[in-house]
Amino acid sequence: MSRDRRGKSAKSGKNRKSSSSNRHPNQIRVFVATPGDVSTERGILRELLEDFDLMFDGLETINIRFVGGETIVPSLGRAQESINKNLRRADIFVGIMWNRFGSDTGKFESGTEEEFKVAFDLWKERGVPWVIFYFSDVPSALNSAEETDQRKKVLAFKKTIQLVIFDVSDLSPNVMIEIGIRSRHAPFILLTRNIESLPFFLKTYHCLVYEPTVAGINNAIPELADLIRKTLAPKNKVVAKEDYQVHELAM
What we know:
Distance between the termini: 4 Å
Shape: globular
Oligomer: single chain
């Protein structure tokens, strides 16, 4: 995920609709897992979800709720267990990483890693939550051995991702490097808004073209789903929906 990092934080949400302790019958719970260096992106995502929720304010159709460590009341025992308990009720899991991997939880090397593992195991077991993971490609300087070690852990974790979807519309140098690395050991899918703007070597791969509008994205989803199935299916074998999953959108 690539974006300009904002110096200001997202709105606090004090004037927004408060969440009820009783779950709305059509509530969508979005669990967000991040280390500490993407607090800006986390705040933007929370504000976006709250804005979506306000769009449905007063209607009985849908209720969207942000869920994360800061929304959970701690209890006795291992702190991560309280977070995992709420994660198990989520409908969508969104993970975000940049340079920091996080702190050891006693079972995993970071809370974000543990939350991803819990979410992925739940998805394999029951098909929920839908799991998405973003990795920021914003340039940065690593100024200490500890920061370098954290970055190495992020890259090692990223290599475990089963399938990567790259949006190459802006021809980000970092994304180009990632494609070069990925092409040697794991599958990936390319997206673009304009096929004519791509360099010749990218045109040798199948690239899904989409329009950057709500209608355009909705129209591209069926083709993307079919492409995912074909990319991950073993040769000469047709797989059911539950046999594959996208873990990362690199945009």
